[in-house]
Automatic annotation (TrEMBL):
GO terms for molecular function: catalytic activity. Transmembrane segments: none annotated. InterPro entries: AB_hydrolase, AB_hydrolase_1, AB_hydrolase_fold, Epox_hydrolase-like. It comes from Ancylobacter defluvii. Pfam families: Abhydrolase_1. The lineage of its organism: Bacteria, Pseudomonadati, Pseudomonadota, Alphaproteobacteria, Hyphomicrobiales. The gene is cpo_2. Belongs to the AB hydrolase superfamily. Bacterial non-heme haloperoxidase / perhydrolase family. This is Non-heme chloroperoxidase. It comes from the Bacteria.
Length: 313
């Protein structure tokens, strides 16, 4: 049995004791899809009127990235640049309420997140794309496939994903009690700015003896977290902690890669990556010794190489 006091899930920690848009939002409905080769950022309006920001770079085989909590598409910058340089088209959006996307009063649930992603994928007419989800974004990818099928999906990669299910109940005895996530919501209301800074230490395993701390990386996380609206920050906690993705994962039949660090203090390997592998028999699980939850940055060279090898396979 795990002790959950002081344990962190999906970028959220409970201790023991901008950039201007390149497209005018008013013109977002008429903006046309890109993917013409050069780096492009744009916005589009979903069916319910939410304006979503996205990046679409390159013209090769498509790779679609879904970011974690409480970040934005900027979290994927190292992977997007690397894969762009290796001939891939890379696409990432800011989830509703996060980053540069608008902050509606509703829609902070995984069905809506998945439908938003589907609108972007359909809008850009992506085919045979590889979908990569980190942390909270892993659940978004799983729910997208469950709701919209694999018709546009060639491969899937889960990186330090919240799948299959974080909340403790009779069918998931290893999960975290609801009281833990209630505490997280209280922390968001109390002083989320300080929390966004404090969480970077365990998030990147900077709290380990001898760790080389990057203050720039900590500030970059804080910058992204502060750009997320407080309503999204509050409600998304319930979304990623209380959504059961076990059924979603069973629908995945395409080649799948699971990457997780064995020092993930946010979403521990044994309740996430290991169990996700059991629900997707064809998946390959790569465990990074000493790997943090923030693998996108702390282990970026290895992750980039593993993603490229997966894309080539």
């Amino acid at each position: 049995m795990m002790a959950f006091h002081g344990v962190i899930f999906s970028g959220v920690w409970l201790p023991r004791g901008g950039h201007a848009a390149l497209t005018d939002p008013a013109k977002a409905k008429t903006a046309k899809p890109t993917g013409t080769g050069g780096p492009v950022a744009d916005r589009f309006t979903t069916r319910d009127g939410t304006v979503l920001y996205y990046k679409d770079w390159g013209s090769g085989p498509a790779v679609v990235f879904s970011h974690g909590y409480p970040l934005s598409s900027d979290a994927w910058e190292d992977q997007m640049l690397f894969l762009l340089q290796n001939g891939y088209r890379v696409i990432a959006h800011d989830r509703r309420g996060f980053g540069r996307s608008s902050q509606p009063a509703s829609g902070y649930d995984y069905d809506t997140f998945a439908d938003d992603l589907a609108e972007l994928v359909d809008r850009l007419d992506l085919r045979a794309a590889t979908f990569v989800g980190h942390s909270m974004g892993g659940g978004e990818v799983a729910r997208y496939i469950a709701r919209h099928g694999q018709g546009r999906v060639a491969k899937v990669a889960f990186v330090a994903s919240v799948t299959p299910f974080l909340l403790k109940n009779d069918t998931n005895p290893g999960g975290a009690p609801l009281s833990v996530f209630d505490g997280f919501r209280a922390a968001v209301q109390a002083d989320r700015s300080q929390w966004n800074l404090d969480v970077t230490m365990p998030y990147y395993s900077f709290n380990r003896p001898g760790a080389k701390i990057s203050e720039g990386l900590r500030q970059n996380y804080w910058r992204q977290g502060e750009a997320t609206g407080i309503l999204a920050a509050y409600l998304a906690l319930g979304a990623f902690s209380e959504t059961d993705f076990r059924g979603d994962l069973r629908t995945i039949t395409v080649p799948t890669l699971i990457v997780h660090g064995d020092d993930d203090q946010i979403v521990p390997l044994e309740i996430s990556g290991t169990l996700t592998k059991k629900l997707i028999p064809q998946a390959r699980l790569l465990v990074y010794p000493g790997g943090s939850h923030g693998l996108l940055h702390t282990d970026k060279d290895r992750l980039n190489a593993d993603l490229l090898a997966f894309l080539h396979s």
